[in-house]
């Protein structure tokens, strides 16, 4: 069995199977967990993947990464001084376990000990003002001296300032690409400094060049790895506002530094304050709000566990698949509503959704909502 428990150390073979499964097309954190829950191990899940993908309506069988390809990635990580940490193992960021669909495997470089500290995320504009950069540095330094590690996304501007200012006390950089593909490239030297007192993490494979659609995934991890998220400067449409929305959806505290109504870089942060974010003019505003949350980073002992009634439930047939698919459209719907509407066993509904997910026909949203993807 490859079910993770607290303090588990996976064997090299188990780790290889975890990587093969999560690197398979259309297998994301949610479907990874569903596969383990249903079949009990990554090895068993890999065996049934082709059949499940075709049952979900895929036109061709899924291409599972070859063992040699994953072994090459593991060797690349070893040469780079990095390691793969699976959920449930020591050094896996504790707060990430509590988010919706945590990444099963993280590539990590540096010290996992930084995640034993309470964490705060600081994000903001790439084209930050000098005042914004000064504020980010001030907040990061004072939060660090108060015992917090700073999490950010290594972007230009506010992110870079927050990392630089928290180097002496501990900082975590989350990358949108592989650990060997830092972006922006000019921050490669900063990464070297970060790993001396903190950590650099990514859920993407080694060699992965970051694409536009990878940055929201990175933002999700930045938000999930912290007790609260501080936005220093952000335009009305920006990745920092995506991070703030994701943080709020996860139940994290959202903070915003106000700015001039005449500065476009302050419109996003001012809007967050209007929507209920905590206004920040000094570090104590953050410390006072976070103080009651210290010590709440614990997660369930078994973040992935097998429900006792799942294997005993008959697999869905064509009629059950049609009933579930008939409830789906492009508008997200809650899974509990699907179960009530179809009057099917929850395990059967979960299995149909898993098949659709593996076939690339399902999109999962926060709060247990799903929608159907229509090909054009």
What would you say about this model in short?
The chain folds into three domains: 12-94, no CATH class; 97-102 and 107-293, 3-Layer(aba) Sandwich (Rossmann fold); 318-372, Orthogonal Bundle (Arc Repressor Mutant, subunit A).
Task: Walk me through this protein's architecture.
With 376 residues, this protein is of the alpha/beta class. The protein has three domains: 12-94, no CATH class; 97-102 and 107-293, Rossmann fold; 318-372, Winged helix-like DNA-binding domain superfamily/Winged helix DNA-binding domain (Arc Repressor Mutant, subunit A, Orthogonal Bundle), CATH 1.10.10. Helices cover 42% and strands 12% of the residues. The chain contains 15 helices and twelve strands. It has helices spanning 12-22, 29-39, 42-55, 67-79, 94-97, 130-145, 158-165, 188-197, 214-224, 239-249, 264-274, 283-290, 318-326, 335-342, 346-358, and strands spanning 83-86, 105-110, 119-123, 149-152, 171-174, 199-202, 228-231, 253-256, 278-279, 333-334, 362-365, 369-372. Strands 1-2-6-5-4-3-7-8-9 form a nine-stranded mixed β-sheet, with helices on both faces. A three-stranded antiparallel β-sheet has the order 10-12-11. Helix 1 packs across helix 4. The longest helix has 16 residues, at 130-145. The chain is globular and about 60 Å long. The model is unreliable at 1-6 and 298-309 (pLDDT under 50).
